[in-house]
Fold this sequence. Notes:
Layout: H1 2-30, H2 33-41, H3 48-58, H4 74-77, H5 80-84, H6 102-137, H7 142-155, H8 159-173, H9 189-219, H10 222-229, H11 234-245, H12 247-263, H13 266-271, H14 277-286, H15 290-318
Helix pairs in contact: 1-15, 2-3, 6-7, 6-9, 6-12, 7-9, 8-9, 10-11, 12-15, 14-15
Amino acid sequence: MINYILRRIAYAIPILIGVNIITFVLFFVVNTPDDMARMQLGDKHISEAAITKWKEERGYDKPILWNNNAQAVGKVTETIFFQNSVKLFLFDFGRSDSGRDISYDIGQRMLPSLSITVPGLVFGLLAYITFGLILAFFRGSYIDVSGVILCVAMMSVSGLFYIIGGQFLIGKLLHLVPISGYDTGFNSIKFIVLPVFIGLIGGIGASTRWYRTIFLEEMGKDYVRTAKAKGLSETSVLYKHVLMNGLIPILTGVVVILPSLFMGSLIVESFFAIPGLGSYTIDAISSQDFAIVRSMVFLGSVLYIIGLILTDISYTLVDPRVRLN
């Protein structure tokens, strides 16, 4: 088991290094510090002195990979690559282009993101798997057909419609919860109910159809027919066999969601004015704060790789045969 986990971690390290290098090339080779200065200063006729000053304030005036003017290890450490790329592996995100401590901002904004994404994931999985099992149980009946039609219809509606419609109906007309904003402690509950509920409704269509397909595929396999031939009831087969054997593809789908638990939802947080990491990233893109964008790209990569490793570990719990691979 330990060897299996170590192998998965060893596979992940080159991926993370590759992502970091590609990000560095995109931000400092394709898009040079001079280009960043011009976009940040927003003046077509900006002077070279202003560009130089902007780069010096952010440490972008250093050489990219090798500093001939430095001494000893400073030739490597006093470079843009080391200061803005290598340090990310130590989770030293440095300061944003506006001068803020990025690590502090991430720590402050992580909880608001988690307060929305974690309930959304938990309640979403419970609801979608339940609905998928119901449709699979009544396969071919009017309940199944009606459910599939409803799912397709809900998939065809834009997520923005659910957000705007939910804000208008639940917040504006019924006045049940605030439309936007955020607070700390138990006061935050009234602000996160609407985003979580809208996210749940918006994902029913696609997720229920996907889980239904998984369960129907499992129900057509030989072990299900064998279980029925032994006299097990349809319900027992569905919950004890089909559901358990369908966990591997379900876990694969969940891993895609795991990074968003910490990174937040870009659209939802923006519409509901929630100070999470999603809105933090959007604000950084809008203000062209490249240091924040780089940090969030790296953090997202790390979280995604961690999610892959956790998924591999969970595979060994669901299917012991995976340990041999």
